[in-house]
Amino acid sequence: MFSYILNKKERIKIFKSMSSKERQKLILKKMKDKGLQFGSGVPNKIYKKDDVLDLIRIVNCFPELRNSK
Length: 69
What we know:
Layout: H1 2-17, H2 20-33, H3 49-61, H4 63-66
């Protein structure tokens, strides 16, 4: 369990040391890996941070949702 915490702290440290462009590339790569596309939300919908996190958690529970096209 403690190794996970250390890994998480290391990941946070690395993420914070990245430039804005590097962070954007990393986030877009992770979205692509999960089958999400930039701008794939509902048009004219403003998402709150909690809404987005809930959607990510739901998609992680149902892998078939990630790959549907």
